[in-house]
Design a protein that fits this description.
- The complex is a heterotrimer of chains A (276), B (269) and C (236).
- By secondary structure, chain A is an alpha+beta fold.
- Chain A folds into two domains: 219 residues, Alpha-Beta Plaits (2-Layer Sandwich); 40 residues.
- Helices cover 33% and strands 19% of the residues of chain A.
- Chain A has a four-stranded mixed β-sheet.
- In chain A, strand 4 and strand 5 form a beta hairpin.
- Chain B has two domains: 136 residues, no CATH class; 92 residues, no CATH class.
- In chain B, helix 1 packs antiparallel against helix 4 and helix 1 packs across helix 8.
- The longest helix of chain B is centred in the middle third of the chain and has 22 residues.
- In chain B, 36% of the residues are buried.
- With 236 residues, chain C is mainly alpha-helical.
- Chain C has twelve helices and two strands; from the N terminus they run H-E-H-H-H-H-H-H-H-H-E-H-H-H.
- The two termini of chain C are 14 Å apart.
- The chains are: A alpha+beta (276), B alpha+beta (269), C mainly alpha (236).
- Chains in contact: A-B, A-C.
- At the A-B interface, loops of A face loops of B.
- Chain B: It holds the Pfam family FdhE_C.
- Chain B: This is Formate dehydrogenase.
- Chain B: One of its GO terms (molecular function) is ferric iron binding.
- Chain B: Keywords: Cytoplasm.
Chain lengths: 276, 269, 236
């Protein structure tokens, strides 16, 4: 069992250089996605199947009336209780020993259930074309560089972060660092908080935020959708049991009929003809 | 690292040995090492430890060899007899000789010792070297800030040939001695053996799929240095372990015609 | 003797529109289920290979989804009388409908039973219809947001997955029962051929749907099987 790791993103140290975006593209061999000017410094509106992390830029008027320019590295949160993993009908999404949530492209059928159920909107389908020109889709998202973790290396975004806004290490240690950091910046950022939402069982990307999560466009109380819980924990097993139950009842009926048929052969004249 | 060619068992043994050495070093009174910081000698490349007055405690040295043997036997029971045999040959006199010869990396002496006594060749130097290292490491701790490296002379503290560098901070290259743990900075594009810093004659060998390491190769002296970006590591191993787990890079470099100690005899522990 | 007679005298039970609607509905339904099975349980993952990949399964599922919606309109447009009669029957529940079930259980398992007088649709068929309508609404209603997630709020899409799943389980159970009773159960077979040809043996119709049959006799549409003369005439 490998150690459970956490990526700690301290947005208050981020200077918006976007090297993490480049490092991610580079390590994961992701193609560029040229964009039109969005009216801000932000390059892409959101993460996508080919852009697994996006640096967001938010202009925010703080409580003292000053303007804060807030930067945030955004990518998959790697939930402890991941909705994408829950709803995947093909068990193509799984947890690694490191705590990261990864997609197995061999199993993925491109149904998009994960995309629709992710509370953070960080998993997306990508269109591919095979050599016969047939189109197919697969879900894509940040892997926390699980292929690097397996080699004992930190995620690419973390190693490239020059102001040290990202750290990678054992969960407990990172949580302690986050708490210490929040207490350090409370004076300057009274709303400073740790983002490690309980609704998804906590995450493996944990943030130190200067403002409330909603200021950064993050959900305040993300959770695994109730519909997904009812669907996967109740409807599906009950449905399977019901299908099995009805099948068994009918098999029983069929056998019983055959049985009584033989027994009742001699009574055929008086009973059988009525309903043949 | 998953990729290392060294077996997990051997890595673990080495880690345990490193742990023991750290304990031994801590148990030593720092005053047993009295370095003689002769500037002229240092500039000439004489290792500090060679000139330092080290007050070796022979019984302690023998005790360490016992502890070391026990550790090895714990993992490899079949070695119990052999190691016991070696121990029976050790008296105070041989121990003093062992310390001297281990210090000067005299593998010829140890090979002959093994042959004469009919024991496996690796055993004498392995024990002597590992029991000597705490003294070297203590010396390195003491003179780390004043010892000056001279190109071609290897480690300024113990004389071990330079072969391992790590990248630190914003990309500073620091040579680490896997033997005594001394470390000293060097220019990013410079041969640690001959001092050549002409970028035209310095090549890098990289291994495909290995993102964090490269081998710096000098065309002038045919020497190489493993340069490992341990900033990317989740947890950093000690220089000794790092040197061990990256041994495949030594193979790659040597197969390509480069040497860890160009111009010298192959000296390795 | 009686068998001969019943197979000879046929009466019209279903309109062409109904037969077509029912057929399309059945084929679409089965196809939809088969294309959905590999998503429902890993046991059926081999079906992806049969369909030539998940993309094809998805495409077939969508084509059949449209086919599944059509029958209602076919029946409504080409046989609106029958359609509305059906709807009316579904909401009409009398004592005989409840009596039907206790006898039905006996018949299902092959015990001796007696027929309870039923109208055009017996109580069991009415239950089947109601459940299938319910499932169809669930499946079709939730299918649209799943097909076009961009047009709907994400909460609705998420709930659709749940409802589609419920519809799948419920629908499967209902249809399994429906198919068993019509195709496999020995007393119902004429009903199965009837839904394909539109015609059923008069004797079978009379015993299973007595009230409906007698009404049609009164209207002069069907032969009165109790009148031995007439019976012979028709049969000859």
């Amino acid at each position: 069992m490998a150690t459970e790791y956490v990526k700690l993103v301290d947005v208050t140290k981020c200077d918006g250089c976007r090297a993490c975006m480049v490092a991610c593209k580079n390590w994961n061999d992701l193609p560029a996605e040229p964009q039109d000017f969005l009216g801000t410094m932000q390059s892409h509106a959101n993460v996508s199947a080919d852009t697994w992390n996006v640096l967001t830029f938010v202009e925010h008027e703080n409580s003292k009336g000053g303007l804060d320019y807030l930067f945030r590295h955004s990518s998959c949160y790697h939930c402890v209780d991941a909705a994408c993993e829950k709803v995947c009908p093909e068990s193509a999404i799984s947890y690694t020993d490191f705590g990261s949530v990864v997609i197995d492209h061999d199993k993925c059928v491109g149904c998009g259930y994960c995309e629709q159920n992710c509370p953070f909107d960080v998993i997306s389908l990508k269109e591919y074309k095979d050599k016969n020109g047939k189109e197919y889709r697969k879900a894509n998202k940040c892997t926390m560089c699980t292929d690097r973790l397996e080699e004992g290396l930190q995620p690419a975004c973390v190693t490239t972060c020059h102001p040290g806004a990202m750290q990678f290490g054992e969960k407990e240690e990172m949580l302690q660092k986050a708490e210490k950091r929040v207490s350090e910046i409370k004076e300057r950022y009274p709303n400073a908080t740790i983002y490690n939402p309980a609704g998804v069982g906590g995450t493996h990307t944990i943030y130190v935020l200067a403002e409330k999560p909603s200021v950064y466009g993050m959900p305040e109380n993300p959770k695994v959708p109730t519909s997904a819980v009812l669907w996967k924990d109740y409807a599906q097993p009950i449905g399977k049991a019901m299908v099995g139950g009805v099948t068994m009842a009918l098999v029983g009926a069929f056998v019983a009929n055959k049985f009584f048929d033989k027994k009742g052969k001699e009574h055929e004249e008086d009973g059988g003809d009525r309903h043949e | 690292m998953k990729k290392s060619v060294v077996s997990k068992e051997y890595q673990n043994l080495q880690k345990e040995i490193a742990k023991l050495q750290e304990q031994w070093k801590k148990s030593l009174n720092p005053d047993v090492v009295k370095p003689n910081l002769d500037q002229a000698a240092m500039s000439a490349g004489v290792p500090v430890a060679a000139l330092a007055a080290i007050d070796f405690d022979i019984s302690l040295f023998l005790q360490w060899i016992d502890e070391l043997s026990k550790l090895i036997v714990d993992q490899h029971q079949e070695l119990e007899e052999k190691l016991g045999e070696v121990r029976s040959l050790l008296n105070e006199e041989t121990a003093i000789r062992w310390i001297d010869e281990a210090f000067s990396l005299n593998s010829i002496y140890f090979a002959r010792f093994a042959e004469e006594n009919g024991i496996d060749e690796w055993i004498p130097q392995f024990l002597a070297e590992n029991a000597l290292r705490p003294y070297l490491q203590l010396t390195a701790d003491k003179v780390q800030d004043v010892a000056k490296a001279v190109h071609g002379a290897g480690c300024p503290v113990c004389g071990e040939p330079a072969r391992l560098a790590q990248l630190e901070g914003e990309g500073k290259k620091v040579i680490h001695c896997p033997r005594c743990h001394a470390h000293w900075p060097e220019k990013r594009i410079q041969c640690s053996h001959c001092g050549n810093d002409d970028h035209k004659t310095i090549q890098f060998i990289t291994v495909e799929g290995e993102a964090s390491s490269q081998v710096l190769c000098c065309e002038k002296c045919k020497g190489y240095t493993k340069v490992i970006d341990t900033r990317q590591f989740i947890s950093r191993p000690s220089s000794a372990i790092l040197d061990l787990t990256s041994i495949h890079l030594d193979f790659v470099a040597q197969e390509n015609g480069y040497q860890a100690a160009p111009g010298n005899l192959e000296t390795n522990n | 003797m009686s068998k001969q007679q019943s197979s000879e005298v046929q009466v019209k039970r279903f309109s062409k529109a109904f037969v077509w609607a029912h057929g399309i509905n059945a084929i679409a339904f089965i196809g939809l289920y088969i294309t959905a099975l590999p998503m429902y349980t890993d046991w059926f993952n081999w079906l992806y290979v049969v369909f030539g990949g998940p993309e094809n399964a998805r495409l077939i599922h969508r084509i059949l989804a449209v086919a599944f919606i059509l029958p209602t309109f076919i029946w409504l447009i080409f046989d609106h009388k029958g359609f509305f009669m059906w709807l009316k029957e579904l909401v009409t529940w009398k004592k005989r409908d409840f009596q039907f079930f206790s006898e039905f259980v006996k018949e299902l398992f092959g015990f001796k039973f007696k027929h309870v007088r039923q109208t055009f649709f017996n109580a069991g068929e009415k239950i089947n219809s109601i459940l299938q309508i319910f499932c169809a609404i669930l499946l079709i209603g939730s299918g649209f947001p799943m097909w076009f997630p961009d047009l709907f709020p994400s909460a609705l899409v998420q709930w659709s997955y749940f409802l589609h799943n419920v519809g799948f389980g419920l629908g499967f159970a209902v249809v399994l029962g429906h198919i068993y009773l019509s195709v496999i159960h020995k007393h119902s077979r004429p009903g199965f051929t009837g839904v394909i040809t539109g015609k059923v043996p008069a004797k079978w119709a009379k015993s299973h749907y007595t009230e409906w049959y007698e009404e049609e006799v009164k209207k002069g549409n069907f032969p009165d099987l109790d009148d031995p003369k007439k019976n012979k005439k028709k049969g000859a």
